[in-house]
Request: fold
Amino acid sequence: MSLLVVGSVALDCVQTPQGSVRDSLGGSATYFSVSARLFSRVGMVAVVGRDFPEEHVQFLRSRGVDLSGMERREGKTFRWHGRYGQDLNDAKTLKTELNVFDAFRPSLPAAYRESQYLFLANIDPDLQVSVLEQVNGPRLVACDTMNYWIVSKPEALKRVLKRVHLFLANEAEAKQLAQEHNLLKAARALVRMGPSIVIIKRGEYGALLFKDEAVFWAPAYPLEAILDPTGAGDSFAGGFMGYLSARGTLGERDLRRALIYGSIMASFCVEDFGLGRLGSVRRHEIRERYALFRSLTRF
Amino acid sequence: MSLLVVGSVALDCVQTPQGSVRDSLGGSATYFSVSARLFSRVGMVAVVGRDFPEEHVQFLRSRGVDLSGMERREGKTFRWHGRYGQDLNDAKTLKTELNVFDAFRPSLPAAYRESQYLFLANIDPDLQVSVLEQVNGPRLVACDTMNYWIVSKPEALKRVLKRVHLFLANEAEAKQLAQEHNLLKAARALVRMGPSIVIIKRGEYGALLFKDEAVFWAPAYPLEAILDPTGAGDSFAGGFMGYLSARGTLGERDLRRALIYGSIMASFCVEDFGLGRLGSVRRHEIRERYALFRSLTRF
Reply:
């Protein structure tokens, strides 16, 4: 497998000012994989319960996601209930039920252990490490996290950061973890924790990539309607890592373009609830939006 | 005069987490002129009181700003007291003293009446109109405003908007005036109020320009330290209008580059209190930062 992700597969209940969904297919590994698969082969390490609908399995297979690392176990699937206000940049978590994820100790299929690109999606940092340790010399390891782990398991998270090449965080989380108000200083503080590349996601304000002294700024695509921001960050990571995995090189130009592909995939994700839009994106639509991104920033 | 601004010349008291200043030279016309003068000749329509220090007059003259439209009247100079929290994007106005601005009815010097480029800086919309009416067929009229006028004089403000080509507003003000949460829809609603070009300023998140169906996104320059955001929007407008005035054409490429020059001038402004940095910017520094902006968004 060229690209591997460990993260959650979930059933989501989401409310936004534009509507709501119940028991919708979600989770960080889901959004990441569906996004990345438009660029590269991708395998998923995750766990679901007995209640996980077969139609979701079929959907992921139909998108071309390799599920040989997705276990099905006794118990219920991970569930997340969230709500967004008019400011769609921040989700309020109403309830999280870990369920089968609580005792999940993944053991990777042999084919996954040689993955070159590894994404440790937002999940317990101890679980991120246990997957990282089963992959033999990956070329690029990236990780995400969330405020919950920054507060509840800061030491475990810092151990993960020491071992990854790239860290993605949203702006508030980056500042919280770095304990620094200024974004540039926060990014530099995060680099000192281990990763040589730091990406700060800013929702509708775009994303910034920091590497050595270079800073690269990707816009967010201005949309007439944002229905549901859930999964935007993981779709972003999927476009970013999927492009790099397909490209096979890690030069500065590759990273810059990967950041644009990440922004493109996030822009599709938020156009509908759940995977409504992301799940039906076609490659020519990605090319068209790439041209629009160019026109957005050219001067 | 090729470029004319009407706006405030003020004595500011400003507190930010990084420090504070008292009775510092400020005001929308001041920041605009000092910024624009690096690109183009600029004249200022404004009023100061008997207490306005001669050193400030000398400073503005030394920067090359034409002051033949700046009146000195009985009474005290306009004063603004403001405070910024750790989120430097929003100023809290502690006190505004209109003083000599209260009864100001400008009469433009003859040389000002043929100005081709006119900026109606943030000031009473009735005053904006009275200046607009004294200029003969200007080529480009732009205006700014603030939440105070949106709330207290919405009808007068809408009369101004009907008569300008370009409107600049910060994100919160644009959404407030358009009564629309989505930025793209807000920009389109503002275009329906009159101006064919709308610029939304987003502080450290950059700026967006809307014209017909085209959208252009300018980043903000990431800075290690933002000492004082006061004047950033007017410095932005000064770079934007100054560049266009010097350029003499209004094509899409001109507007895009003007937006970058606006962002550059705002980035200098916030690096120090008051005019500490903006007042000493040299042309080669603008060229250097232009190259940095290119590197920031190239992909």
